[in-house]
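New to this. Help decode the following:
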Amino acid sequence: MRRFLLALCPRQWRARYGDEFAALLRDTPLALAAVVDVLRLAMRLHLRARPWLAQIAGAVLATAAMEAAAVRAELTDNILWAPSTPLRALALVAVLTPTAMVVDSAAMRRARLRGDELA
């Protein structure tokens, strides 16, 4: 189990801190709290190494939350609805905005990279 927990961390991080972390895991009883802490650490390390992944995860969570709010407010029964009233149109915009922001961010990042390659 300790080897599996260590393997969850990014490869570059393991190359630098893996021996020390493995020793710490050997000396620590594997209680549920310790396992959860290692899982949270691994997730934070992966998200820090890939900020775009954090953006996508945030957009998915925000979209799900807005969709749930629209369903709870009885504006819709499903994720696809027609903006037939101003309130439904606003809810639809709120649901789609996080995804649009991630797509825009990716397009801007790609444009910056292409500009850097041309210079």
Summary: The mean pLDDT is 86. Residues 83 and 89 are 4 Å apart (CA to CA).
